[in-house]
Automatic annotation (TrEMBL):
Protein name, per record: Uncharacterized LabA/DUF88 family protein
Molecular function via GO: RNA nuclease activity
Disordered: annotated span: 1-26
Boundaries of every NYN domain copy: 59-203
Naturally occurring in which organism (per UniProt): Streptomyces olivoverticillatus
Length: 327
């Protein structure tokens, strides 16, 4: 057996040296990423610590038209503001106290008081409410029939904006109009909880069912709660008003027929071109058209449809029924 001899040590015929491990080239982009991740972690830690020590915040959104109508009907037997006085300051304070009990670990952002005024010029009473601490008065318009216009859109704008910017965690909404459903849905989509507060209705409801379905909780204030803030004017004598409905409330079919009447008038004055623009939005109507429909229908019926969400739905159904037959 041949002995193995060590390989020559000279350069000639020497086996190749084992490859040396070269240091990995520097990766500055990885260092930058690591530093950015570290900064992000530090920021998240600070934010979480701040959130843990920051109390939640709530706001109260009051549809004054609803409050006047519902409280007046419950306590004074009438929705006519001229027939009674409302202690708005006392009622607002009662709402704040109630919210303090319901949200004990939350702070109040403010109370938003939504009302109507002719040409949006505030009355003396509204000015006094605006001067109350933690109260913001927002005015829509008031038409010739003393109906609020634009108030629901103000509520929607404020509620959605505050929820989107995480300015509130809870919203107490005092109102009843079905048009507020979209605002509730939007606020909830941004993580806010919406609590619907109402005033006891006599012989029915004064809040739309669709609104009751969407909110996170419901609360109703009864006669005992409202009575201290409503005082009937003893010397008040209502003026005779034309086209006032004194009989029983119209049926859904009656209101649906009126909706079709208004649709026929609307179509006759605007033409089929306007119909083609309206149909893609079915079953929703643009705000301006919906307001026109409501005003015209109330004039024909001699009845305010405020607080009658089911009749307003029937009205819109009748409006659409006629338009769709003409397409």
């Amino acid at each position: 057996m041949n002995e193995l001899t060590p390989p020559p040590t000279g350069h000639e015929g020497a086996p190749p040296a084992a490859p040396r491990l070269q240091p990995e080239p520097s990766r500055p982009e990885l260092a930058e990423i690591a530093a950015a991740v570290e900064r992000t972690n530090e920021l998240l830690t600070r934010v979480l610590a701040e959130v843990a020590t920051t109390p939640s915040t709530h706001a109260i959104f009051v549809d004054a038209g609803y409050v006047y109508a519902a409280a007046g009907r419950l306590v004074a037997g009438t929705e006519d503001r001229r027939a009674f006085e409302l202690d708005a300051e006392g009622l607002i304070e009662a709402f704040i106290d109630k919210a303090r009990m319901i949200f004990p670990d939350s702070r109040l952002l403010r109370v938003y008081w939504y009302d109507g005024a002719r040409r949006r010029i505030h009355t003396t009473e509204q000015q006094g409410i605006a001067e109350l601490p933690d109260v913001k008065v927002r005015l829509g318009n008031l038409n010739a029939n003393n109906q609020q216009k634009g108030v629901d859109s103000l509520i929607r704008t404020d509620l959605e904006s505050l929820a989107r910017h995480r300015a509130i965690s809870d919203a107490a909404l005092i109102g009843g109009d079905e048009d507020l459903v979209s605002a509730v849905e939007a606020a909830q989509g941004y993580g806010a909880r919406v609590h619907l507060w109402g005033i006891e209705a006599i012989g029915g409801r004064n809040q739309a069912e669709a609104l009751l379905w969407e909110v996170d909780s419901q609360r109703t204030f009864d006669l005992e709660f409202c009575k201290p803030y409503v005082t009937r004017r003893a010397a008040y004598e209502p003026f005779a008003e034309p086209h006032v409905h004194h009989g029983p409330a119209p049926s859904r079919d009656d209101v649906r027929f009126v909706g079709a009447q208004v649709a026929a008038q609307w179509l006759g004055s605007r033409g089929r071109e306007s119909l083609a623009e309206l149909l893609p939005g079915h079953p929703y109507l643009p705000g301006a058209v919906d307001q026109e429909l409501l005003v015209e229908a109330e004039a024909l019926l001699g009845l305010s449809l405020r607080g009658h969400a089911d009749l307003r739905r029937a009205l819109r159904d009748g409006f659409w029924d006629h338009l769709r037959t003409q397409y």
